[in-house]
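Quick sanity check, GNAT family N-acetyltransferase:
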Amino acid sequence: MSEIDSHHDGPGRQFVREAKVSDAEFIASLQAASLTELFDDLSLDTPVAAQDLIENWREAVGQQSGGRVVLIAEDQGVSVGFAAMNEGEILALEVDASARCQGHGSRLLAALADLADVPELSMWLLPEQSGLIGLIQSAGFGPAGKRRTLESPGAPLVQHLWHATLDN
């Protein structure tokens, strides 16, 4: 597994690389923290434990091939974010709260676009995910006019589909 050269900001500083199975704990921890933050913003009492997510991420990272990709953003040797994609659908794009607004999300998104073997990227988001919506809009994503409802304790969650056409 290697560093993705086009998404590197100087030697040893900020870059994106393919995830390894040993990254599963970091990925699960960051995802749990991000989901907890989102659910708190939505006033939903839905606990998310990283321990419950680790095995799923080990499997996902271990099965990368074709259109399945899991990436890690690093800053001076420290993992600060991750992204996951399957056949052009971005399943996750998270950056640690302490490392946001430093270009890591943009680097992850650019790396996903470079690795995609499809004409379009898409991502389902809740309207409350304004930071992530701003990021993908700045990268050329727009609303696709589709939505879906996910059942959750307390209230259903309505996600909207965002998409961008790639210049391959």
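Posting the structure with no commentary besides this: DSSP finds four helices and eight strands in the chain.
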